[in-house]
Amino acid sequence: MLAGFEVSHVDEAPRQQVAEGIAVKTLREEDDNSTLSAMLIEFAPGAAFGEEIHQSQEVLFVLEGEFHDGERVHPAGTLITAQKGSVHWPQSQTGCRLLVLYPHGATQ
How is domain 13-102 classified at the architecture level of CATH? Predict the structure, then answer.
């Protein structure tokens, strides 16, 4: 491994069901070396999370399907940046896969 690099693979990340039809695979958790957290989130068709108030900045990239934030539908290829204190209602009628990054940690 090159010095200063860390590698994670989605197939090796444990899968955790966080709500009905919504699963998370944590790719990177913040630690003493970095506040970055990264995860893959999968929504089954029709799954909804409810209101989410961001405790820190969130960067979300729609990899597959369509993500609905409670106001708009975002197709694959969309990058969304949500600032600390922002609110949305994550859901998907079609199902989707998201790459979610917390550059400053998930609870900062």
Answer: Sandwich (2.60)
